[in-house]
Each structure stands twice: as C-alpha cells, then as structure tokens.
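Sequence in, structure out. Go.
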Amino acid sequence: MDAQSNNPYNTPVHSRPVPLVRVQGSHREMGRQIGEAMREQVKHSIENARKLLADAYEQLELTWEGATIQARKYLPFAQERYPQYVEEMMGIAEGGDVSFEDVVVLNAMEAVTTDALHLTRCTSMAINEQRTADGHILAAHNEDWVPEDEEDVYVVHAKPNTEPPFLAMTYGGLLPNIGFNAYGIAQLIDSVYPNDSRIGIPRIVVGRAVLAARTPAGAIRRTIVPHRAAGYNHVILHESGEIYSVEVSARRFDILYAEDGIMVHTNHYLSAHMKELEAEPEELISSRVRYFRARRLLEQSQVHTIKTLQAIQKDHVNFSNSICNHAVDLREPLDREKTINAMVFDLTARQMHIAWGNPCQNQYHTYHLED
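Output:
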C-alpha cells in the first residue's frame, strides 16, 4: 500500500481527544486519583505487558512471575532516592485496583527485559526563539511504542503539594515523565541502548523526577542521579530558550547543546563518548534515518510554528519506520511499534498540543497548564 494513501494500513482514528486527568495533593493521593480515573487503562496496560512477555517467552525466557522477582531488585534503589514516586506507584495500584508489584513491573519493564524491547522508537525536536515566528520556545515528540498501549494514553495535569505543577503524557500504569512544569522546564525522552545497564533506579522513575526540577541545571542533575539502572536521552528545555540533550547510560553521560536554535534526537547516541557504550548499533539504522530526516526538515526553514512542527511529525519518508511510524509487521512480539501519540509543546504559553495515535490520521487537541 502507498504510504501516502488516505489511511495506510488501517491506522486507528480516534474520534475524541486524549483523556485528561486532574490530580492534586500528596504523591500517594495523586497516584490514587490517577488510578481511580484511569482504572481501565491501568488494568489494560498490565494485561498488555503480561501478554507481551508470554508471546516473547521463546526469546526472553521470562515469565510474569520472573519479571516480578526481577523488578523487586530495582525497588529499593527507587525507594531510597525517590520515595515520593514510589508512593505515586502505590497510589496508582490502590486507585486502579491492581497489585503494587504489577505496577512496579510495568515501570521497570525495560530493565527486567534487559532492553529486549529494542524498538527504534521516538523522535524529539526542540527549537528556541531564534527559529520561531512568535519568539516562543517549542518542542515536539512522537511517542512510538507497541500498538496495544495506544488505547491507554492520557494526559495528567498535576498539582503536587511540594513540587511544581506539571502537565505530562503517559499511558496505563506508567509514571508520567514527558511534559513540562510551571517553572518552565520541559522534558522529551528517547530510549537509547547502552551496554552498561545494572540494577538501580528505573529509568522511568528518573524521568518522573525531572518534572520536579526548577532550573535547567537541576533538571540535568536529576537525569544523571547516582545508582541509576541505565539511561534515556533527555531533551531538556527551559523557557529562556536554553536547550540541552543529555545522553545517559548507567555510568556515563554527555551533554549536547542546541546549535543554531534547534535540537533533534532519536534513539541512538550522538556523542562520541556515549557511542562507545551503544549496544548493537546496527539495529538502530532507522533511528539514524529519522534523525537526519527530522534535522533536514527543521533546517529547511528559518522560522517555525506549531503547524510546521506538526507537519514534520506526519512525515512518511522511510515508511513504515518513518517519523510518523506505522505498525505493519505485527508478527514479531519484540519488533512491533507505531506512533501512539504526537505532541507539540509551546513552553512559553504552557500548552500541549497532542494527537492521539498517528498524527497523519488524527487531530491535535490543546491542553493548558494552569498554575
């Protein structure tokens, strides 16, 4: 089928906006409110994860019971450094009427599968006032993951008692981490694949902590917290126009700075220091294609808007492993992916524009962070 047809591969179309959940209070209370409001999604995401492990048993030789045992090893590190986010997971379990251990497995899934979920997923872009029509700070992110979790996407508007308010996307029983807060800090996350992973603080917990940062340096420090299990790439923006890409593994990191007002990152390391740790770089060819394609499209225009970023998010070059990623081959359980949502942040206006599912087929809807 032609990638430019009206609806390639019967891509799901959502007739309503992504659900919005408003929560406030202590971390336990916020988790419980999320779990209660999104109970169906929390349960569904656990069912999806259980099925994924069952389908991939031949490759992973890991049962859900085995994953639970492995996840327990990571929990003490999270409890010691970030007990408040463990409280959020406890609240999600209570409100969602599921076991706490199941929620822990979800949030440590990348670790317990030793990155066998090697999906070359996600495309992140950021531009500052040098390159926008209205002088605003903009960021864009395509979230690529297994198709089954698309139904479980939602947006959290949170007002913690002791941390900055934030607006973030998540799905199922996962802690939110891609979003921005009232102090003008935004975070985009791309999976990367270092070979030095270890038992430690799960990456999702590290990402959640960044949403509580009040300064760019504070955000960066949180990405490289000691005793982390592995690492993501964190694109960190500040309302001043500062843009950083923090490439992280379990033991190393490097900080890249936006050139000419733009930043692009996908799922491979850009720093020579970090490339030394990249596991199976030959598996990340489509990540490199998306990186160069997104960078070229950004550089073609000196002035960008929310609409121009959304147009890039719909790009189908290298279909189906394109920026707008489509699920085509569903046979291999560990090699299935699609864009389950696409976001553009206007950090200056504190707005999130999000399309539920592939942006080529679904409309963007706008959410606001209210202090």
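Check: The mean pLDDT is 94. The domain at 118-368 is CATH 3.60.60.10 (Penicillin V Acylase; Chain A).
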